[in-house]
Amino acid sequence: RLFFDSSYYLSSNPQKEETAETEKYQYILPDGSTLDIGPARFRAPEVLFRPDLIGEEYEGLHEVLLYAIQKSDMDLRKVLFQNIVLSGGSTLFKGFGDKLLSEVRRLAPKDIKIKISAPQERLYSTWIGGSILASLDTFKRMWVSKREFDEEGRRAIHRKTF
Question: Does the chain have fewer CB atoms within 10 Å around its N or its C terminus?
């Protein structure tokens, strides 16, 4: 984990960095050997925003976020744009918040205010949120046992949650 936190980053201008002579980063492994990392330092995280770089035809993270907000109730959209919360390990890449903000700004309505929060504990916030959700009595009614899933598949999830 420390390896990715310290050496990989999201570039504000990856096209420019592709043409520039990228400085190699030297990472010392626990056994004392070294690893030289070049353009992969910014290319690997860029896939989160541009899956096409690895031949995938998915939407980028910023596009999925915008799609989810646009599919929500019209009255909630403004609030959702102002309450984007980063969570999970990939959000720890240097420049992640800035890149997400610039990409969402580029696609969002021009008059909308966008606010992104990056909590210190975001590495574990998905687990924390999941444990809180799982402990709620209302959520327990939505649990699907392995037997139910084996018998009904996705229908079991839809039956209990929708």
Answer: C
d(CA 57, CA 23): 30
Cβ-count burial of 51 within 10 angstroms (0-12 exposed, 13-18 middle, 19+ buried)?
middle
- List pLDDT tens digits, range 50-59: 999 999 999 9
Residue 34 in contact with residue 27, Cβ under 8 Å?
yes
Lowest mean pLDDT among 23-32, 48-57, 73-82, 94-103: 23-32
Asked if 35 contacts 26 with a C-beta cutoff of 8 angstroms, the reply is yes
Above 90 in pLDDT, residue 17? Answer: no
Average pLDDT over residues 85-112: 94
Nearest-angstrom CA–CA distance, 19 and 67 = 32
- Domain spans, the chain: 2-123, 125-162
Residue indicated by tokens 């899933």: 149
Two structure tokens written together for 88: 């999970």
CATH architecture of the domain 2-123 equals: 2-Layer Sandwich (3.30)
Token reading at 113: 């205010």
